[in-house]
Specification:
Largest sheet: 6 strands, parallel
Radius of gyration: 22 Å
Mean pLDDT: 91
CATH class of the largest domain: Alpha Beta
Low-confidence stretches: none
CATH superfamily of the largest domain: HUPs
Order of helices and strands: EEHEHHEHHEHEEEHHEHEEEEEH
CATH topology of the largest domain: Rossmann fold
Number of helices: 10
Oligomer: single chain
Length: 307
């Protein structure tokens, strides 16, 4: 999959099939959209192109929300689905003032030579969010390209969506979130040096910074860690660590039966079961006692899951 960062790096295409959106999480609804896009691209023998924005329009306008997938995770999922091109447009003040008509004329038609556009019937674009499915249809008739609206994908009785997935994760409903994502929720990152406070209470942890400004999960969880080509069980805390007056969100993981130096290594943390919400303790002794209980709960979970 080719990644194009910014319109200034975009070469003119003589034809393409296009979809537009943030696609955070690449959940089962997104997967169906991209699979349809890729299939249509093969039929027309044209490249499949997904347009997304950085920062997201919501974030740019001050409506920041938690992020379900890092860029690396999203790239992996999109590539796995067979997408040809991921075009990432910088969403700044100048771009935010681009009219919907200009977006169609200058980008979809002039730059991408769009022949087929797959879009949600509730999707809005352009300055003042004046662009919609009907506007694209009117241009399609005039400039001879096809527009198709995406169909909602149900997960149980719920419409598959990033916002509903965030709700499930915030509520600790990891199994429901996994059904909507089509995989278990995972945070990946490079292990960094921490303050090594865990060692002082006999629970050394690996620490992974959370680049998301808002994490979709907070609290204590039973987790599986993919590290050094192996899988380990453990218990994780993700939050601001109120007992030590932490400021930034950090992911700390205590691995069972593990004693290696792994700073700088890359790890995937798969969230299996929420144990409890994060809380502040009056002393390190109270924190240590609670972690012992958390470890026991996590080990019981894994024992039960293996039976």
């Amino acid at each position: 999959m080719n990644i194009i960062r910014g319109l200034h790096n975009l070469k003119k295409h003589s034809g393409s099939v296009v979809t537009i959106g943030n696609f955070d999480g690449v959940h089962i609804g997104h997967q169906q959209i991209i699979s349809r896009l890729v299939a249509k691209a093969k039929t027309l023998q044209l490249p499949s192109i997904l347009i997304s924005f950085t920062p997201t329009p919501q974030s740019f306008f001050g409506r920041e929300q938690s992020v379900l997938t890092s860029f690396k995770q999203k790239h992996y999922q999109l590539e796995k689905l067979g997408l040809d091109v991921h075009l990432i447009i910088t969403f700044n003040r100048k771009f935010s003032q681009l009219s919907a008509e200009s977006f169609i004329q200058e980008i979809l038609l002039a730059k991408l030579g769009v022949k087929f556009c797959l879009i949600g019937d509730d999707f809005r674009f352009g300055s003042g969010r004046t662009g919609d499915f009907k506007l694209l249809q009117s241009f399609a008739h005039q400039y001879d390209f096809q527009v198709e609206n995406t169909q909602s994908v149900l997960c149980g009785s719920q419409r598959a969506s990033s916002s509903k997935t965030r709700d499930y994760l915030a509520q600790g409903e990891l199994q429901l979130a996994a059904q909507m994502l089509g995989r278990e929720f995972c945070i990946s990152g490079k292990i960094i040096h921490g303050k090594q406070l865990g060692r002082t209470i006999d629970f050394p942890t690996i620490n992974i910074p959370i680049k998301r400004h808002i994490s979709p999960v907070l609290g204590v969880f039973a987790v599986q860690i993919h590290l050094l080509g192996k899988t380990f069980n453990g218990v994780a805390n993700i939050g601001k660590r109120p007992t030590v007056n932490g400021d930034n969100i950090l992911l700390e993981v205590f691995l069972f039966d593990f004693n290696q130096m792994v700073y700088g290594e890359f790890a995937d943390i798969v969230f299996k079961q929420q144990i409890r919400k994060e809380q502040k303790f009056d002393s390190f002794d109270q924190l240590k006692a609670q972690i012992k209980l958390d470890v026991r709960t996590a080990k019981d979970f894994f024992k039960s899951a293996s039976n």
